[in-house]
Design goal:
The protein is of the alpha+beta class and 432 residues long.
Length: 432
């Protein structure tokens, strides 16, 4: 009996010690976890309102504090017992509130996530609202943000922005500043180089600039001191004034194309100086075409076809063959002389003589004579004399016996071998 009393006393002491220890644990957890009078779980986050407000969690705090969390069993009886475990392994956990320092999971499905920091290699999010996002890369179909700060940004599509600000200022302010500087430079240039009053009125121009994504328009004068490089087409609707123009391809103006060493037209004819005003000079005056149509060639002219002319005037003609219907011979005074009317003088029984001042004429070799001397001052060392008999010569051949020219006399002699019984008419022609 004494042993039993002692054991009961010991058991009571042990139970009392356990209750005291558990009460101490519950007391230590009282600040974070406790049961309400109705058996509900009460959680104290130990986070001040100011801290939650600074993190933007006002709505989340109010929602958490105003929510009612309870746990019931299969008979809808509220469970009010609290357990603590160092580790729990469960196939499924249902809870009104889970508070944890770290949650490691493969999949997380939530209707709403409020977080101070989100770290993920890749996240598919339909809608993201955040105070500050710091990331290496963002891939999205649509991004709406009050402010974006990025060291480097690459956009493959189209960027729409109400205002873009660079370290030097907004794009609009930069363009305005550049145009104002350009206006001042142009005003100085015009004032320095142009003295006319109209040119000095720079304020009459509209110096506004309209800048768009694919075009730019500047009304007024524009001057560039450095190079202008255009990667696509340059279209000028008005007049253009160029100091020097270098074209590596084809220069096309209307129906005229100029490239390398050729000029051609797509029309049926190419006209040079069609107005007829002024002369045309080619190859350093080798070919000169005057206003009146005269053509001067200061070189040799080779014609492989036919040459047609109403009048051909030349100092000398050299040809292998001459075909003509009629030849007119003129003197130095441009008077045509067909023959000389001077009488034939008989020098001897075999010789007759004729004086003439022409280069050609018609004469008679008297019957019984074998020689006819024609004196003319048109004879020189290079003269050629041609003879053509008119009528029968009885098979006699007319020939030039000699040509004599000196300071005192100048003549040639027409001769046949045997005298004839009738006069012979002869056409003669001296060509120099």
């Amino acid at each position: 009996g004494n042993d039993t009393s002692i054991r009961a006393t010991d058991m009571a002491g042990i139970a009392l010690a356990g209750i005291k220890a558990q009460q101490l644990q519950i007391t230590s957890l009282n600040q974070d976890l406790s049961l309400t009078s109705t058996g509900q779980i009460s959680i104290n986050y130990n986070i001040s309102d100011e801290v939650l407000a600074s993190l933007g969690y006002d709505g989340a705090k109010n929602e958490i504090e105003s929510a009612t969390y309870s746990l019931t069993d299969s008979t809808d009886t509220i469970v009010n017992r609290i357990s603590q475990f160092s580790e729990i392994a469960s196939a499924k956990i249902k809870a009104g509130l889970i508070s944890a320092t770290n949650i490691v999971t493969k999949n997380l499905i939530a209707e709403k996530i409020n977080t101070k920091e989100l770290i993920s290699p890749k996240a598919d999010i339909d809608q993201l609202t955040a105070i500050d996002i710091q990331t290496t890369s963002i891939t999205t179909e649509k991004l709406t943000s009050t402010e974006i700060v990025a060291d480097n940004a690459t956009i493959s599509g189209t960027l729409y922005a109400n205002n873009i600000i660079s370290p030097e200022g907004s794009i609009g302010d930069l363009m305005t500043s550049k145009i104002n500087d350009l206006r001042d430079q142009l005003t100085q240039i015009v004032s320095a180089k142009v003295a006319s009053e109209s040119a000095l009125l720079a304020d009459s121009h509209d110096w506004s600039a309209s800048v768009a994504t694919d075009s730019a328009q500047i009304s007024g004068d524009l001057a560039l001191s450095n190079n202008l490089i255009v990667g696509a087409q340059l279209m000028v609707n008005g007049d253009s004034q160029l100091g020097n123009a270098f074209i590596s391809g084809t220069f096309t103006a209307g129906e005229i194309a100029i490239k390398d060493n050729l000029i051609e037209t797509t029309n049926t004819a190419l006209y040079i100086q069609p107005s007829g005003s002024g002369s045309v000079h080619i190859m350093g005056d080798t070919l000169v075409i005057a206003e009146n149509g005269d053509v001067q060639i200061n070189g040799n002219l080779t014609v492989h076809g036919s040459l047609f002319a109403s009048l051909l005037e030349t100092d000398e003609i050299k040809t292998n063959k001459l075909t003509t219907n009629e030849i007119h011979i003129a003197t130095d005074s441009a008077q045509l002389i067909i023959a000389n009317s001077a009488p034939i003088t008989e020098i001897s029984t075999q010789t007759a003589q004729l004086n003439s001042n022409a280069t050609a004429g018609t004469t008679n070799l008297p019957a019984g004579k074998t020689e006819l001397i024609i004196s003319t001052d048109k004879l020189n060392a290079n003269s050629m004399v041609y003879l053509t008999p008119i009528g029968s010569t009885n098979n006699q051949v007319l020939y030039i016996k000699n040509k004599v020219f000196s300071g005192s006399e100048s003549y040639f002699t027409i001769s046949i071998d045997n005298p004839l019984t009738q006069d012979i008419s002869i056409n003669w022609w001296v060509i120099n």
